[in-house]
Design a protein that fits this description.
The chain has 130 residues and is mostly beta strands. It contains 1 helix and 8 strands; from the N terminus they run αββββββββ.
Length: 130
């Protein structure tokens, strides 16, 4: 088995776990309503398709800030490698389907970290809930 065929098998297996769907958008500018003067951001859709959201364990790691103990999580948004190359830091993902937990539909995630790795089976992006 070649490295390429093993990688393709790994990507197929990773995508089988991606049962949720999301749309990723990017603000490209803004427009002003001449009647009201309200400014509205203009957005471009960068990606629409399958995804997986992973928050890790429920506690993350604990940190102390100004005498307060806080639980910090490091959520990850996983996307297929093919078709998601244009996604970058600053883009916003909205979950559009989550068949295993419909309460998560509509969740918004801001992409805060990029991903680069040789032989990756999925694009794993650091996100935060704004």
């Amino acid at each position: 088995m070649s490295i390429q065929s093993a990688l393709m098998d790994g990507r197929t297996a990773a995508e089988l776990r991606m049962v949720s769907a999301c749309t990723i958008t990017r603000v490209t500018g803004s427009s002003v309503d001449p009647a009201t003067g309200a400014e509205t951001p203009t957005v471009e859709t960068i990606y629409t398709g399958k995804c997986e959201v992973q928050f890790g364990d429920s506690l993350g790691h604990l940190t102390v800030l100004q005498g307060q103990q806080l639980a910090v999580q490091s959520p990850t948004l996983k996307l297929p490698i093919d078709g998601s190359a244009g996604v970058k830091t600053g883009d916003v993902a909205t979950l559009t389907a989550h068949p295993l937990d419909v309460g998560k539909v509509g969740m918004v995630l801001k992409i805060v970290g990029d991903f680069t790795r040789d032989y990756a089976t999925a694009r794993r992006l650091q996100v935060e809930v704004p």
